[in-house]
């Protein structure tokens, strides 16, 4: 992170930023920059990670960068480190059946990730393992949050990889949807999960951060109901195979900390409204705001 980079301007616009926000230059592979940024902190939230399937760009920052953060946090004697992992470190396991409940005990199969060249999931899994191992070695209190695909309003003006997943169904760039399932969560719930696991003394281990799992067909149906003016694809890319079953996922650990998850229908609605506000989608019709109160 470069403190004066224009892409960080949205952070300076946050409420209270002028009084309470300090941006520091940091590079995950530059230990001294991390030491300087973390020194004097009570806690560290390690959220940075490349989003790529290039193994050279993914694995080293995920592993060595994470180790650097934990070691710098240990030297600074921070109270707790919250590490943002991913559902990618949890669900990539070909041996798991659709009726198995995915919870914090589940891990992605590293050999399967390598064989399928899914370097993002491989990097997140080995990065989380590295964080856990180094934290134990250095005596650092580490708590992990594993978010699924994140929906909701964007702070920045640009579109990130998660939101492109929804935008492509609205702007006409794709004519079909995949026969796949995906777990979703609202960005505010992810932020609150990080705060809860940091502030709750008894919090420990991993926390899956997910509201629900939908088939892509469910996603386009919800979008079409809310926003019928867009060219939303209602045809499956692969209609020759049976519809993939939704897997079950447990978010009970975060619920036990008091987190009330935003229904996925509301998350999808707010995502599209924000894309309109940011100019990524044309606005054609006014919608009944009460419709988003439908429970998923």
TrEMBL record:
Q: Which GO terms describe its molecular function?
A: cinnamoyl-CoA reductase activity; oxidoreductase activity, acting on the CH-OH group of donors, NAD or NADP as acceptor
Please give the pathway this protein is involved in. Aromatic compound metabolism; phenylpropanoid biosynthesis
Domain (NAD-dependent epimerase/dehydratase): give its ranges.
Answer: 17-204
Q: Say which family it is in.
A: Belongs to the NAD(P)-dependent epimerase/dehydratase family. Dihydroflavonol-4-reductase subfamily.
Tree of life domain: Eukaryota
Q: Which CDD domains match?
A: FR_SDR_e
Record-given protein name: cinnamoyl-CoA reductase
Q: What is its EC number?
A: 1.2.1.44
Q: Which InterPro entries would you find in this protein's record?
A: Epimerase_deHydtase, NAD(P)-bd_dom_sf, NAD(P)_dehydrat-like
Is the Isomerase keyword given for this protein?
A: no
Which species expresses this protein natively?
A: Camellia sinensis var. sinensis (China tea)
Specify the enzyme's EC class, one word.
oxidoreductase
Q: Which UniProt keywords apply?
A: Disulfide bond, NADP, Oxidoreductase
